[in-house]
């Protein structure tokens, strides 16, 4: 069994008592959490390879809702199996072929329609982690309905078209991420300077590995905690600034 080079330690997950509930939207299941007051602002959360039911991602949904947004995490895997920490790493490329983060446009449209028509949302942001970060980068190039985006350690790699962002986008990276080298981050920064016409931001958090920002408080190591909390604050601040 090869070690997973990029997945953070999913270890023994502490049980998380969610604040939201599950809904069915057309052919998609989704987890939704609403703030305690009514609002016309919403945020879509795009899960990582562990899928929409993973406790860490639901924790993030609840966290964002607590800042005053109708927050929703749809099942972008459309009922298929998410990746599991017990799966074999050599199978990952095949799994990815069937779970392409660039093929999320239809699901995004279904969720946008739901948020506008059923929840009265006027401004909608998007936040994604890892696999979801790639999906966010893709959608911020394609879907003008998304007012702002935050991509956490996920980028579209192999397209020259990937720098013409439609709306403000913030890229969060860990300095010690095995999947995204600092060279790739510098290239992204360089090209965005040349091509991007909207506000963007890139930030690298010292000593952090892939997946660092969605850990729940009880799963954090003390030395990482300040960076995790800073990344989350930065993520929320970006959303608040534009959504």
UniProtKB/TrEMBL annotation:
Per the annotation, which location comes first and is thus the protein's main one?
cytoplasm
Q: Which GO terms describe its cellular component?
A: cytosol
Question: Where is it located?
Answer: Cytoplasm, Cytosol
Check the record and name the Pfam families matching this protein. Answer: DLH
This entry's Gene Ontology molecular function terms read: hydrolase activity
**Transmembrane regions listed in the UniProt entry:** none
Q: Locate the Dienelactone hydrolase domain: which residues?
A: 29-241
PANTHER family assigned:
CARBOXYMETHYLENEBUTENOLIDASE HOMOLOG
Concerning its family, UniProt says: Belongs to the dienelactone hydrolase family.
Write the protein's name.
Carboxymethylenebutenolidase homolog
The organism of origin for this protein: Rhabdornis inornatus
């Amino acid at each position: 069994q090869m070690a997973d080079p990029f997945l953070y330690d999913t270890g023994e997950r502490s049980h998380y008592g969610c604040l939201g509930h599950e809904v069915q939207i057309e052919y998609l299941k989704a987890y939704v959490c609403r703030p305690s007051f009514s609002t016309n602002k919403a945020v879509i959360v795009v899960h990582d390879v562990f899928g929409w039911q993973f406790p860490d991602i639901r924790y993030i949904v609840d966290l964002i809702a607590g800042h005053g947004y109708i927050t929703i995490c749809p099942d972008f895997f459309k009922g298929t199996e998410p990746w599991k920490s017990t799966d074999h790493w050599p199978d990952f490329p095949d799994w990815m072929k069937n779970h392409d983060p660039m093929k999320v446009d239809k699901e995004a449209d279904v969720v946008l329609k739901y948020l506008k028509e059923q929840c009265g949302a006027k401004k909608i942001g998007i936040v994604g982690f890892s696999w979801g970060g790639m999906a966010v980068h893709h959608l911020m190039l394609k879907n003008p309905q998304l007012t702002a985006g935050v991509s956490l350690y996920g980028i579209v790699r192999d397209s020259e078209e990937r720098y013409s962002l439609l709306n403000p986008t913030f890229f969060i990276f860990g300095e010690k991420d095995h999947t995204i080298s600092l060279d790739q981050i510098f290239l992204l920064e360089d090209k965005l300077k040349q091509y991007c016409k909207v506000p963007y931001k890139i930030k690298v958090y010292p000593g952090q590995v892939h997946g660092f920002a969605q850990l729940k408080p009880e799963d954090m190591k003390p030395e990482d905690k300040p960076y995790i909390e800073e990344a989350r604050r930065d993520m929320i601040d970006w959303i608040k600034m534009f959504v």
